[in-house]
Design a protein that fits this description.
The structure is a single chain. The chain is an alpha+beta fold and about 290 residues long. It has helices at about 10-15, 60-70, 75-80, 85-90, 105-115, 120-135, 150, 155-165, 165-175, 180-185, 190-200, 205-215, 225-235, 245-255, 260-270, 280-285; strands at about 1-5, 25, 30-35, 40-45, 50-55, 135-140, 140-145. The strands form two sheets. Strands 1-5-4-3-2 form a five-stranded antiparallel sheet. Helix 8 (about 155-165) packs across helix 9 and helix 11 packs across helix 12 (about 205-215). It binds a DNA duplex (13 and 12 nucleotides) through helix 6, helix 8, helix 9, helix 12 and helix 13.
Length: about 290
DNA sequence: GCCCAGGAGTGTG
DNA sequence: CACACTCATGGG
């Protein structure tokens, strides 16, 4: 099936290729393709419109795409609020098309547990391998990220063979600790309570809890701090300190849209990096 | 080969 | 509380 809808501003590369989500792939013709729920979706921007092609299709695809791209976010409002920060204002004018993405809670949780101390190309590969081996086939060779029960069937030894390294045990224990019912409960919590419960999970520390709060549970006030954000805060604001200190600074400075501020900072800090941005693996880049 | 990665867990002072 | 150390590994 094929249809179009209005989501604007939206830059697919800035949004789907900036390390929030790991399963979208850019084609040379400018389209972006990836699994979304039970669909294989191809996206293309045409002016203010977004052209969507989906297999196998269905009534719910429009809602799926709108939710994933957070179509109801008021980007003008975000920029109006964050633009009052003169340090941030310089860097964000070219990033109006970057939207925070809304990922399935379980997929997001597992993905960012995998993301600990690995670079983005490697994270992408780990997730790809898990999907290939344990996920449900959607269309062609594309498979969905494995559900909790699908992934729970894997032994830690099998997970090791997927190239997860020491993260295999995190994932294994995570599967044994959490269930769908608990995920349902977490959805009801406000950000502070949510992150508090998330850090109790195995393999989930401050940073992963904030990534999952932001991308998985859609709490826009979350501000994940990784090595790149640490550098950005030091370089642009002269701020250093431990996680809770930096987090408090971000909350005060960026308020309810700290998540967007974080993504703008992350994007620019990576462009600022010496060896290019490393957003994609070599294979994907050519 | 070397360096580093969207860190977390654990132990110690 | 703050550090220090370890964890397993592949992409650049």
């Amino acid at each position: 099936m094929r249809f179009d809808l209005e989501i604007d501003p939206l830059d697919l590369g800035q949004t789907l290729g900036c390390g929030q989500t790991f399963r979208w792939r850019a084609a040379p013709d400018g389209t972006w393709a990836g699994p979304l729920g039970d669909q294989f979706v191809v996206l293309r921007k045409a002016g203010r419109r977004l052209i969507v092609e989906a297999k196998p299709g269905g009534r719910h695809v429009r809602k799926l795409v709108r939710k994933h791209l957070r179509a109801d976010d008021d980007i003008d409002e975000v920029h109006r609020v964050l633009g009052t920060d003169k340090v941030l204002a310089d860097g964000i004018s070219q990033l109006k098309g970057l939207r925070i993405v809304k990922i399935d809670e379980w997929e997001c949780l597992a993905s960012f547990v995998l993301a600990t101390y690995a670079n983005i190309p490697r994270i992408t590969k780990m997730i790809e391998t898990l999907s290939t081996r344990y996920g449900t086939r959607i269309a062609g060779g594309v498979r969905a990220f494995p559900t909790h029960s699908q992934l729970a069937r894997a032994t830690s030894h099998e997970l090791m063979k997927c190239g997860l390294g020491y993260r295999a045990q995190y994932v294994k224990t995570l599967c044994e600790t959490i269930d769908e019912h608990q995920l349902e409960h977490l959805r009801t919590l406000p950000y502070e309570k949510l992150r508090k419960e998330l850090v109790e999970l195995p393999g989930v520390g401050d940073k992963v809890a904030d990534c999952v709060s932001l991308f998985g549970f859609g709490r826009l006030e979350a501000f994940p701090i990784d090595v790149w954000i640490e550098r950005a805060l030091a370089r642009l604001y002269g701020r250093k300190g431990n996680y809770s200190k930096l987090r408090a600074f971000a909350a005060k400075r960026f308020g309810p849209y700290a998540g967007y501020a974080q993504e703008y900072l992350f994007y620019n800090e990576r462009l600022h990096a010496p060896n290019g941005s490393c957003l994609f693996s070599k294979e994907e880049r050519k």
